[in-house]
């Protein structure tokens, strides 16, 4: 019995070993070796950049450096299984005005290229000709725009809490409310209507509306509908005034008020020039997905700042790592830029021709992240996400945020004016029309009664005259 048990145990052990060795995640030294496409050298294409050289810099084929190269070398040192190549050869590829897509396509067009290492963003179009690793640096497209803000030293700071549209609608609301009160009170003998002229009445009405919260008016309003409009107006002013006070307080208690970041729809609606980094996927994203045609290529970090401050571009659309590097280079006093939320979710990865290579490097990149080495490399190259010094977000009231108050006031005025018109115009006109109709009916009845009789009498009179003899006529 003992030999049978031993044989069963050995059989099950071999089955488990065979099953686990077939799993894709069970990488070991016994797995198939990693082999380059030609010879014993791994051929790697590296982009030659003129901007953001912190990511990758390739001056000649033997001197490639940067954050991406450091990540690649660290991942190469912990690859499982061990590669068969004995050397790694870097080939500098001048990007110029080209897109990175042309560089990725080399993996398919050339039979000696094994990998593309650089700040390459993973996209759906690029997956056709390459096999990517998992992302080693989170990315995503954002919008960088100048943040002028509202300073507390600005002479018109007391107008800042409301937008121009809100101020305009507020002034119109004052006139409409005054007109509604004048219309509702025009038959009442109050101090508002006891004026020598219509112009004086209007003047008193508008003065009453604008000063209602400062001077208490005791018996100026008598009409119930006018009182209802007045209650709605007071509620409107109280709520709007509270919002104005809160917004103005936030402006006066901080050094600077940050404006709201731009959205991609607002950027497209502006129809102005937008900047982007030459060679990035942003150009295709703006042109084909959002139909933004006015684009300006930017070749270095200095061009970013100059283009924004000189208003050559209204905004710059780029990926988060590059925007972080640009903002980190700005001094605190000059860092007056707003950054939008992520427009896309993407990341940087290495591109390979062989899927086994990309899978092995993905495992190595995961190990680097879990061990903390990836964060150390990011901090060493100052690639951690960076923002300008935080400022208070803009709380200016626009029409969208305050439309509820205007709708409330407008609904109250519309309801009261409708009741007033119904009471003083529609109903009296209906009564007059009915009375006029009854009068016409009565007159028609009288005419219908007397007209045939009068006609018969006249005919009889003339008939009698014609029947007389000549000697009887006088």
Automatic annotation (TrEMBL):
Pfam families: Lig_chan. Residues 1-22 form the signal peptide. InterPro entries: Ionotropic_Glu_rcpt, Iontro_rcpt_C. It is a multi-pass membrane protein. It is found in: Membrane. Its main location: membrane. SMART domains: PBPe. One of its GO terms (cellular component) is membrane. One of its GO terms (molecular function) is ligand-gated monoatomic ion channel activity. The chain crosses the membrane at residues 167-184, 205-222, 228-252, 404-422. This is Ionotropic glutamate receptor C-terminal domain-containing protein.
């Amino acid at each position: 019995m003992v030999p049978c048990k031993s044989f069963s145990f050995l059989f099950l052990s071999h089955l488990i070993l065979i099953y686990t060795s077939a799993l894709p995640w069970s990488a070991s030294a016994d797995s198939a070796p990693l082999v380059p496409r030609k010879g014993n050298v791994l051929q790697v294409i590296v982009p030659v950049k003129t901007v953001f050289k912190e990511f990758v810099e390739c001056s000649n084929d033997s001197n490639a450096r940067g954050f991406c190269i450091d990540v690649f070398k660290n991942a190469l040192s912990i690859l499982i299984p061990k590669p068969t190549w004995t050397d790694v050869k870097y080939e500098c590829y001048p990007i110029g005005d080209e897109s990175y897509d042309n560089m990725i396509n080399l993996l398919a067009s050339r039979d000696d290229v094994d990998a593309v290492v650089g700040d390459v963003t993973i996209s759906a179009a690029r997956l056709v000709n390459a096999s990517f690793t998992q992302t080693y640096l989170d990315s995503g497209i954002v919008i960088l725009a100048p943040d002028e803000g509202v300073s507390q030293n600005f002479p018109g700071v007391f107008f800042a809490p409301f937008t121009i549209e809100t101020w305009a609608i507020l002034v119109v609301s004052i006139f409409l409310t005054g007109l509604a009160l004048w219309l509702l009170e025009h038959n009442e003998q109050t101090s508002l209507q006891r004026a020598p002229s219509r112009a004086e009445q209007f003047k008193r009405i508008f003065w009453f509306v604008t000063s209602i919260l400062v001077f208490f008016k005791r018996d100026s309003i008598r009409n119930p509908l006018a009182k209802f409009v007045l209650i709605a107006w007071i509620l409107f002013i109280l709520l709007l005034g509270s919002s104005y006070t809160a917004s103005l307080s936030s402006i006066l208690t901080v050094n600077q008020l940050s404006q709201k970041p731009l959205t991609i729809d607002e950027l497209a609606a502006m129809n102005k020039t937008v900047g982007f980094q030459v060679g990035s996927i942003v150009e295709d994203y703006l042109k084909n997905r959002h139909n933004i045609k006015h684009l300006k290529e930017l070749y270095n970090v200095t061009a970013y700042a100059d283009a924004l401050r000189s208003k050559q571009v209204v905004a710059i659309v780029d990926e988060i790592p590059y925007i972080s590097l640009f903002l980190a280079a700005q001094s605190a006093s000059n860092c007056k830029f707003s950054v939008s939320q992520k427009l896309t979710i993407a990341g940087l990865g290495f591109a390979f021709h062989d899927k086994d290579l990309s899978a092995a490097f993905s495992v190595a990149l995961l190990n680097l992240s879990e061990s903390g080495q990836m964060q150390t490399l990011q901090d060493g190259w100052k690639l951690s996400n960076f923002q300008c010094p935080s400022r208070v977000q803009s709380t200016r009231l626009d029409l969208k945020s305050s439309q509820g108050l205007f709708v409330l006031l407008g609904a109250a005025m519309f309801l009261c004016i409708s009741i007033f018109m119904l009471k003083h115009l529609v109903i009296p006109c209906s009564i007059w029309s009915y009375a006029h109709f009854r009068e016409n009916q009565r007159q028609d009845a009288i005419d219908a009664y007397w007209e045939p009789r009068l006609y018969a009498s006249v005919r009889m009179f003339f008939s009698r005259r014609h029947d007389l003899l000549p000697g009887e006529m006088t």
